[in-house]
Write a sequence for this structure.
């Protein structure tokens, strides 16, 4: 019984991280109609920055509880990176064919992957001090890391916050208006350029946060972004590109299937995920909750 | 404008592809005579990539569909060669091609049947997702595929076993002979693709690319044409994979992983996807650029990524597109 609880918690942990990545990807697509192939790499940058900050803080002798505050700092750094990237690289492409948009983000992916290697080297960066600092929880006869439960909490909080922002604030209205009809929004006097930067920065923040909270339990390694992007793709394809609800449901489906897969059919675990994505695209091209 | 300047272009516009092709073939045939063994080997890689990119461009340039999953067909070709060697002990290059092509064609047909239900971004994501199914299978079924270690591919025999490369000095003999072998396949493939895109079938694809609705009104069965284009495209890219495996001597899941699909897109764009010869130039140029980038810096991805971004920003028509523009400015040509 307790093994089942642990597996469910594992799935939820995984779903939280995936939701943060996929919701950012989906938000960016929903508002800007760009599929950002470099999104996974932004997640990886968040992980690297968080691990690096934690390492610095430990060297400076900061108490461990403070280290948790470094996670949002890392996410903010990624958001800043997004604010630089959007006007510089993406803005010239909104009016051009999708092929070029995909290619420029692919170029960005190559650049970011190597910049990470340049800055942080080829060895994995860890921040497990944070993980060890949080007491474990007893579930029946099993011990479960308390940090994972904290991550689930962050995921839930992020989902709620995102919902409140998008459906309850003026900024959310601006986002949705731009997403529905960019030209109409511009004609009504909305500064679309600013909304784009903001949307991209929020998307980057979430990807960065996902990377930052995952790094205490998994190390930051090269190539983690490329892997994460594909899983995030599966999530948004299942849930529907541009849909927040879709990102949440998709993240849950992918996480539970993956946890079950690792338990019962480890060889075809990834293949099953891609096949689910392909299957959803065939029967419902816009995903479970997509409209576009 | 001078009188002869008007007379010249008529001649050029009709014949320049053939003149250029004949010149290109002449240069390619003589390459091993003046270039070193290493350069010849690199060019062999380049020609293989050119076949793959030409196949890919049937979809992107001529049908208007951007596939982000062509690594699947390239990798499948490479793994088929490795399996034929490992399970059946086949050493003949001709058998690799004859047995490999149907495998690639069947999988392209299957994947294509699913993918052509969509266009634009969903088409791209679907091709990507399906290619990653193959990647994850190659990665996870390591007792079959060797996992990340991949599978070794020995030097094959060429021309129905007439040329064998066993014994000392076999490697350098193989490189030169294999260069001419690949060159032959390359010329044949290019000719076939040239015929395809200039046939009524090819024109129908271009009509669908330019205006799907109008093509449908003309009575074209759009989805079926796209499917056929997908099948051809995947098969030619698979042929490139079949040729690649013996030259590389090893096939790993890297050629199935989706960034490799990105590289195929990259080389096609580098050469120019709006011109028939663009992918050839792109495939060769990309191979050389990547090899020298890898050799000269640890951060070659950074370099390539920057090149890609600059290319997309400033030169979206690619190398051949720029050359054609320059030529047009020199000699004002009739628009064909």
């Amino acid at each position: 019984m307790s093994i089942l609880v642990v597996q469910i918690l594992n799935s939820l942990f995984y779903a939280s991280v995936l939701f943060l990545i996929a919701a950012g990807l989906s938000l960016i697509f929903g508002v800007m109609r760009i599929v950002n192939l470099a999104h996974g790499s932004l997640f990886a940058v968040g992980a690297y920055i968080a691990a690096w900050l934690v390492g610095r803080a430990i060297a400076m002798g900061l108490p461990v509880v403070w280290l948790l505050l470094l996670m949002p700092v890392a996410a903010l750094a990624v958001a800043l990176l997004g604010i630089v990237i959007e006007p510089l690289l993406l803005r010239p492409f909104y009016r051009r064919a999708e092929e070029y948009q995909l290619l420029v983000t692919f170029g960005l992916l190559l650049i970011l992957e190597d910049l990470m290697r340049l800055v942080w080297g080829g060895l994995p960066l860890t921040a497990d001090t944070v993980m060890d600092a949080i007491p474990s929880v007893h579930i029946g006869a099993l011990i479960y890391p308390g940090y994972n439960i904290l991550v689930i909490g962050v995921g839930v909080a992020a989902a709620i916050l995102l919902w409140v922002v998008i459906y309850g604030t003026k900024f959310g209205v601006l986002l949705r208006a731009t997403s529905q009809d960019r030209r109409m929004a511009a004609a009504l006097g909305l500064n679309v350029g600013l909304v784009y930067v903001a949307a991209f920065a929020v998307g980057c923040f979430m990807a960065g946060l996902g990377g930052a909270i995952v790094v205490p339990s998994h190390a930051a390694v090269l190539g983690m972004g490329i892997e994460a992007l594909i899983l995030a793709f599966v999530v948004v394809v299942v849930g529907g590109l541009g849909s927040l609800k879709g990102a949440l449901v998709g993240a849950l489906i992918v996480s539970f299937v993956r946890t079950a897969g690792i338990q019962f059919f480890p060889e075809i675990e990834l293949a099953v995920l891609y096949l689910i994505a392909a299957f959803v695209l065939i029967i419902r091209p816009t995903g479970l909750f997509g409209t576009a | 404008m001078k009188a002869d300047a008007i007379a010249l272009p008529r001649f050029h516009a009709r014949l320049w592809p053939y003149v250029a092709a004949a010149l290109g073939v002449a240069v390619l045939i003589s390459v091993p005579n003046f270039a070193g063994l290493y350069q010849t080997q690199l060019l062999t890689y380049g020609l293989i990539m050119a076949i793959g990119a030409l196949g890919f461009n049937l979809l992107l340039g001529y049908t208007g569909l951007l596939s982000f999953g062509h690594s699947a067909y390239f990798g499948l070709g490479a793994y088929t060669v490795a399996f034929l060697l490992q399970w059946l002990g086949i050493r003949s290059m001709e058998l690799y091609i004859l047995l490999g092509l149907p495998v690639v064609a069947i999988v392209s047909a299957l994947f294509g049947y699913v993918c052509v239900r969509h266009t634009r971004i969903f088409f791209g994501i679907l091709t990507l997702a399906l290619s990653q199914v193959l990647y994850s299978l190659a990665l996870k079924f390591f007792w079959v595929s060797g996992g990340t270690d991949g599978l070794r591919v020995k030097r094959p025999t060429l021309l129905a076993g007439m040329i064998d490369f066993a014994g000392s000095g076999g490697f350098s003999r193989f490189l030169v002979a294999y260069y001419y072998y690949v060159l032959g396949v390359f010329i044949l493939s290019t000719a076939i693709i040239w015929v395809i895109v200039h046939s009524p079938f090819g024109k129908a694809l271009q009509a669908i690319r330019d205006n799907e609705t109008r093509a449908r009104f003309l009575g074209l069965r759009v989805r079926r044409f796209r499917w056929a284009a997908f099948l051809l495209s995947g098969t030619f890219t698979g042929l490139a994979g079949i040729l690649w495996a013996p030259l590389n001597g090893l096939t790993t899941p890297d050629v199935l992983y989706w960034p490799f699909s990105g590289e195929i897109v990259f080389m096609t764009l580098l050469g120019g996807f709006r011109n028939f010869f663009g992918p050839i130039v792109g495939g060769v140029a990309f191979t050389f650029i990547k090899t020298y980038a890898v050799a000269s810096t640890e951060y070659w991805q950074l370099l390539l990524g920057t090149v890609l971004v600059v290319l997309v920003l400033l030169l979206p028509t690619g190398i051949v597109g720029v050359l054609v523009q320059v030529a047009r400015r020199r000699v004002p040509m009739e628009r064909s």
About this structure: Chain B touches chain A through 43 residues (CB under 8 Å).
